[in-house]
Amino acid sequence: MNGLSELEKKVIKEFAERERKILSRYAAPSISGVRRYGEEFPNIRPSFARDGDRILHSAAFTRYIDKTQVFSLSENDLITHRVIHVQLVSKISRIIARALQLNEDLVEAIALGHDIGHTPFGHDGEEHLNNEVTQKLGGESFYFRHGVQSVRALDKLEGRHIPGAGGRSLNLTLQVLDGILCHDGEDLKRSISPERGKNWDNFDGEVERKKKEKNVEIAPMTLEGCLVRFVDTIAFLGRDIEDAVTIGLIKGDEFPKILGDSNRDIVNNLAMDIIENSRGRDEISYSGKRFDQLRTLNDFNYRRIYNNPLIKTQRDKIRGMFDALYKRFLNDVRDGRIDSPVFFDHVNLIDGDDAEQTYLMKTPPEIIVIDYMAGMTDDYFVNIFNEIFTPRKLPFNFRQIERATGLPKKRLIQLYEEEKGK
Question: What CATH code would you report for 6-311?
């Protein structure tokens, strides 16, 4: 603890002692946090709390604000966006973690980062990116998974340039990145036990498996990671029903009331069931009754909400936009078109002051484009498509262009011809 004042050292010891007294023997203490790269930053914050702060201050977290949760292109500002969902996961996870005597800082960090890699337009966008452009990459199978992309964004694209890292990294702990990778809230399980004892080699191998295999079952290494995986479902199940009622997709009396009449009841009943069935155990578990009710309600959501044709009317258009933008940006990267948005809104931001241009030089063009498109918000996606592919009206008077640019018409025509010939 070199570089710390006596007061700071005292506070750090008090934090550790408090965790020792409060946390369950199955919890992950903050002192167990393992980072990929060494750090020399004196700080009183426990390791997992520091990770949560790093995620919160990342550019990728800022983009949550305009990413779809379920309902894309809706003008109703009362429905849930991705930024609300991750906050709900964080809040619910912390309350249950407190009841189970688990590490609240760890569940919060996992929750805040678990959907960072989501594409614009939610799961439909993920499906488009996966089906249209990434099934085959370099002759090998490659599956786009938002959990894998979340890890990549936080471990490879955000943060400081770290010597020996081959680029940027927020240098989050293994426990946090593992929880993000394994969150898979759509894959319902009655119980999950942690797969303890992972190291960085294990983790990196699991990331590669998720990229190359269609269905991969991987358990988190901590009980906190298992909890966030369950809460991901709890946070969206009733909330998505309320949003569907808000926009008139279903009526309030149509959904099965087996877990309660409202989102509040659904969250409370499932949370209490987890607490009752998981306290003092090295697993997160539902009772058989509640799990059956959960599956029934989840099946209703898929049938009446997620796969409802009324919210899929723009799906083919969006698929075509994904395909067109991917091909355009792939050509731009391959051709070195530094005036393209893929450079000034993505590549240049990552390489920054890196004179060796590590990201551009060492990353396949296809992956650069996937990184770029996965990081887009819904509005940015539509705006950049319109900028590239939608024709604009000519000016009322071409003298306006001359005045605005300070260039004569002949020079403007010459520049246009040069651009066309590239």
Answer: 1.10.3210.10
Tokens of 67: 């990413």
Say yes or no to pLDDT of 201 above 60.
Answer: yes
Residue 410's region, left for phi above 0, alpha for psi from -120 to 50, else beta, is alpha
Q: How far is CA 19 from CA 22, 29, 106, 199, 291, in A?
A: 5, 7, 12, 23, 32
State the pTM of this model: 0.91
In the three-class reduction of DSSP (H, G, I as helix; E, B as strand; rest coil), residue 145 is classed as coil
Q: Are 124 and 144 in contact (CB under 8 A)?
A: no
Q: Are 213 and 143 in contact (CB under 8 A)?
A: yes
What string of DSSP letters covers 153-210?
IIIIISSEEETTTTEEE---BHHHHHHHHT--TTS--SEE-------HHHHHHHHHHH
Q: Which residues pair with 284 in a beta bridge?
A: 192
**C-alpha triplet 26, 31, 34: angle, nearest 5°:** 95
Which residues face 169 on adjacent strands? 160
Which pair of tokens denotes residue 312? Answer: 């899929």
For residues 341 and 353, what is the distance between their CA atoms, to the nearest angstrom? 18
Q: Cα separation of 126 and 147, whole Å? A: 11
d(CA 63, CA 61): 5
d(CA 149, CA 78): 28
Structure tokens that stand for 139 in this block: 């002759």
Instruction: Identify which of 16-20, 168-172, 174-178 has the greatest average pLDDT.
Output: 174-178
279-329 pLDDT, tens per residue?
999 999 999 999 999 999 999 999 999 898 888 888 889 899 999 999 999
Cα 347 vs. chain centroid, distance in angstroms?
A: 19
Structure tokens at 134: 């990434």
For residue 182, which of 114, 134, 281, 112 has the smallest C-alpha distance?
114
Domains of the chain by residue range: 6-311, 392-422
Residue 318's H or E segment, with its range, is: helix 315-335
